[in-house]
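Suppose you are handed a protein chain with no further information: no name, no annotation, nothing but its sequence. What can you learn? This example shows the usual starting point.
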Amino acid sequence: MAAPEATDDRSAQRGDPQRRAIHAAAITQFSERGFSGTSMTNIADAAGMSRPALYQYFRNKGDIFASAFIALFDDHVDRALQALHGDGSIEHRLDCFLQRFEGDLWEQMAASEHSEEIMSAKSVDTADQIQIVVERLRTGLVAFLEQASPGRCRAATARRAEWAEVLELSPKGFKFDTPTVAVYRRRLAALARGVAADIASDDV
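A reasonable first move is to predict its three-dimensional structure. Written in structure tokens, the prediction is:
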């Protein structure tokens, strides 16, 4: 019997407790052992299930890897967007947004000595799926900026596009020198502070 496709109805699959347990176990195993050093047996044991039962959900290790990391990004996007709709100043909400997505992901990757192998193990299809998830993050950010600094004129639209671009791309540059988690989080906070100040000055 063929295993179900990991990408079919992703929202429903994310809510499946067994799949979430497998995802959590897989991410832990990949982080501890690396992609090449992790076996289906390792994942099955960590998830508290038999290897044959694991094959009822996923075809192979690569299938689990793709599904687990797409779900991981989905979860971080959920938390980041929730932060944007929380209480506090624009600076506070932007900082929480960046910390929940960029900061928490960086902390998780930095904790593994196999992070480079894990990142390079992503397939083209996995990267494409993650980009779809990140587009949801971008759409939520743009909506937030429209609320924070409304305006229909061309200049207002251009300013919001600049803020969104800076918030999306700057964190990638912040990783250039492989900073500690604390330094990376401090840079994210400075970015949130700078964009919030620019939004405030634009409204004056």
